[in-house]
């Protein structure tokens, strides 16, 4: 049984106050709070099990290696991949960069085409600009539909004989729409196109099955799914990982090298894990996935759907609220208050103890589409409640945002 | 805080300059300018300065900005026009002191006193200072486009 009241006891941050109000944290697309079990797992590493992996002959080191191996398996099971397809990175940004600079740079040539959407996060745009610069491949944008959604029809229209890579988010971080990823992958593969999926906003919120979706690469971050910062995952189909350059080389990723610059790399995934890994992060990530599994990803998805529906219903009752993504599937709700600058409203919400994000949310091209310089983004997670939505609604109804400075 | 000014008046000052900024104009020529963009707010402004023989003949700005940055930058223009460089720098210094809750000379800040509460909303300090910072940069370097 999903019991949000009980769940909330697991999160120490939920007892925090902000501006003398109980904190209402509605910025979960940005980062998420950690259950105590995750913090304890990190502490376990630092207080009792500190050692490096792959580097010693003593028990502590052996134990770290085991944890590394176990975590890789836990991650693999979580997204239905094979263990050797799971690469530890510092986060989704590094994962996306590894696909771009490790794989794409070595496979694309002049005038090949990379398809993106205007809704992509900077981390799924800028690495591709770099690829374009290095290879001469062209960046093209798949048209979004009227409400900003990525549709299969528009993907079909954008594909040409030169298209080599489609790099898109499973769930967009501003508009929160769920892309028809499985259908896109099927279509792409018919044309021998690689699909690099940004899963930062999807993996934490719904069950993920990479084999069913058919994605070639999937990137996501630990900290957006109750895990620590500084740890993330790149999933890649094994045969593609084998064709990916490590980009970062060093210790722990090579078999041998000599003075004549000959070097033999380890096989994936360790090929991509040069240097000392973020072991505390890995301990924490394992604990976070175990925590999510205990609650159940299906339950999380279902609960967030209900909470979203409730929030939309209440927001629609306020006259001067513009909702940009009423029909989105995820817990991301993007709004503005008429005549109030997004940042000004966000500051007012801060004064009421409510954390939301204002601005462009790192998707700087999207604002042209939305015809507004900035938006307010409310993003939910499974520990949020209807009462918190009520607090938000009450605050949004209040007229004067300058109260933040003068009350 | 001076006794003569209350919260309602400060609120009104900010709203007035937000809704009807007096110095939000793009000049044609004869100005040095600087572009300033905030990472944590949408603020994306240019500040234009016309200096003649060490006197600020005019100060303008344009761009996209929230209420706090619009009003504070507009008030800044008002404050420095017809001041000499040294006086302008002094105003900027006193403003920064106020924002950071240090002792400051309120005599020279005029309507800018409306931003005395900015530290209550620390995330907006950047908005309240973006124009002043830009002007300081122009005065320090006097280059720009």
Question: Can I get a quick summary?
Answer:
The complex is a heterodimer of chains A (407) and B (145). Chain A is an alpha/beta fold and 407 residues long. Helix content of chain A is 39%, strand content 17%.
Supply database-style keywords.
heterodimer; A: 407 residues; alpha/beta; Aspartate Aminotransferase, domain 1; Aspartate Aminotransferase, domain 2; 2 domains; 7-stranded mixed sheet; 4-stranded antiparallel sheet; B: 145 residues; alpha+beta; Sufe protein. Chain: A; 3-stranded antiparallel sheet; 4 helices; 17% strand; globular
Describe the structure.
Chain A folds into 2 domains: 4-30 and 296-402, Aspartate Aminotransferase, domain 1; 39-294, Type I PLP-dependent aspartate aminotransferase-like (Major domain) (Aspartate Aminotransferase, domain 2), CATH 3.40.640.10. By secondary structure, chain A is an alpha/beta fold. Chain A contains 15 helices and 17 strands. The longest helix of chain A is centred in the N-terminal third of the chain and has 21 residues, at 59-79. Chain A is globular. Chain A is 39% helix and 17% strand. In chain A, the strands form 5 sheets. In chain A, strands 4-10-9-8-7-5-6 form a 7-stranded mixed sheet, sandwiched between helices. In chain A, strands 13-14-17-16 form a 4-stranded antiparallel sheet, covered by helices on one side. A two-stranded antiparallel ribbon of chain A has the order 1-2. Chain B is α+β, with helices and mostly antiparallel strands and 145 residues long. Chain B has a single domain (7-140), classed as Sufe protein. Chain: A (Alpha-Beta Complex), CATH 3.90.1010.10. Chain B has 4 helices and 3 strands. In chain B, a hairpin with a 6-residue loop joins β1 (32-37) and β2. Chain B is globular. The mean pLDDT of chain B is 91. Classes of the chains: A alpha/beta (407), B alpha+beta (145). The A-B interface holds A 341-344, 347, 350-351, 358-360, 373-374, 400-402, 404-406 and B 7-8, 10-11, 14-15, 40-42, 64, 66-68, 117-118, 120-121, 123-124, 127.
């Amino acid at each position: 049984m999903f019991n949000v009241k009980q769940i909330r006891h697991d999160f120490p941050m939920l007892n925090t106050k902000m501006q003398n109000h109980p904190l209402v944290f509605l910025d979960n697309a940005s980062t998420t709070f950690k259950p105590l079990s995750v913090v304890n797992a990190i502490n376990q590493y630092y207080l009792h099990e500190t050692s490096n992996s792959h580097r010693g002959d003593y028990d502590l080191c052996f134990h770290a290696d085991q944890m590394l191996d176990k975590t890789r398996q836990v991650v693999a099971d979580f997204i239905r991949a094979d263990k050797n397809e799971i690469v530890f990175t510092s986060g989704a940004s590094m994962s996306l960069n590894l696909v771009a600079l490790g794989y794409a740079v070595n496979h694309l040539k002049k005038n090949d085409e990379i398809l993106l959407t205007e809704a992509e996060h900077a981390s799924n745009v800028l690495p591709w600009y770099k690829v374009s610069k290095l290879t001469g491949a062209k960046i093209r944008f798949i048209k979004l539909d009227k409400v900003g959604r990525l549709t299969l029809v528009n993907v079909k229209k954008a594909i040409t004989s030169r298209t080599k890579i489609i790099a898109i988010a499973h769930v967009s971080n501003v508009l929160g729409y769920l892309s028809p990823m499985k259908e896109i992958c099927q279509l792409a593969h018919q044309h021998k196109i690689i699909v690099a999926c940004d899963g930062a906003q999807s993996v934490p919120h719904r069950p993920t099955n990479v084999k069913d979706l058919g994605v070639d690469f999937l990137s996501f971050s630990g900290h957006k799914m109750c895990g620590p910062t500084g740890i993330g995952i790149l999933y890649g189909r094994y045969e593609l990982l084998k064709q990916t350059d490590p980009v970062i080389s060093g210790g722990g990723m090579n078999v041998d090298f000599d003075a004549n610059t000959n070097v033999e790399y380890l096989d994936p995934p360790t090929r991509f894990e040069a240097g000392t890994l973020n072991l505390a992060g890995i301990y924490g990530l394992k604990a976070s996935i175990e925590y999510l599994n205990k609650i159940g990803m299906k339950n999380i998805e279902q609960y967030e759907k209900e909470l979203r529906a409730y929030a939309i219903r209440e927001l629609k009752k306020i006259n001067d609220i513009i909702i940009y993504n009423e029909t989105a599937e995820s817990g991301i709700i993007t709004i503005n208050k008429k005549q109030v600058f997004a940042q000004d409203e966000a500051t007012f919400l801060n004064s009421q103890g409510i954390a939301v994000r204002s601005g462009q949310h790192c998707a700087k091209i999207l604002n042209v589409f939305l015809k507004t310089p900035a938006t307010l983004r409310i993003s939910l997670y499974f520990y949020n409640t209807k009462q918190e939505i009520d607090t938000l609604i009450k605050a949004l109804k209040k007229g004067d945002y300058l109260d933040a400075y003068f009350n | 805080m001076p006794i003569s000014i209350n919260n309602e008046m400060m609120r009104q000052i900010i709203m007035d300059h937000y809704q009807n900024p007096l110095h939000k104009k793009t000049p044609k020529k004869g100005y040095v300018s600087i572009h300033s963009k905030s990472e944590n707010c949408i603020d994306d402004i240019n500040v234009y300065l016309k200096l003649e023989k060490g006197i600020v003949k005019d100060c303008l700005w344009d761009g996209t900005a929230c209420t706090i940055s619009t009003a504070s930058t507009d008030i800044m223009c008002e404050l420095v026009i017809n001041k000499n460089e040294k006086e302008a720098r002094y105003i900027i210094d006193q403003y920064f002191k106020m924002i950071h809750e240090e002792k400051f000379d309120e005599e020279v800040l005029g309507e800018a006193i409306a931003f005395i509460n900015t530290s209550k909303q620390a995330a907006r300090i950047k908005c309240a200072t973006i124009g002043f910072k830009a002007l300081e940069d122009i005065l320090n370097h006097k280059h720009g486009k």
